[in-house]
Amino acid sequence: MALIRNIFWIAFFVVATFAFIVLFEHGPTNFADNAKRELTELSVIFGVQSKADSKKSP
Known about the structure:
Blueprint: H1 2-26, H2 31-45, H3 51-56
Helix pairs in contact: 1-2
């Protein structure tokens, strides 16, 4: 049970940190599109998506 609780808190921390980064860099307007942009940038940083693919997205 403690393992499930720890996994939940870690996931919650990651999501809250991501939301804070989006709000801090882009502000509260158009949050969904800015979150997609940040997610694309993170995928490029971690090597999930190539830089050429990221240039195609708006």
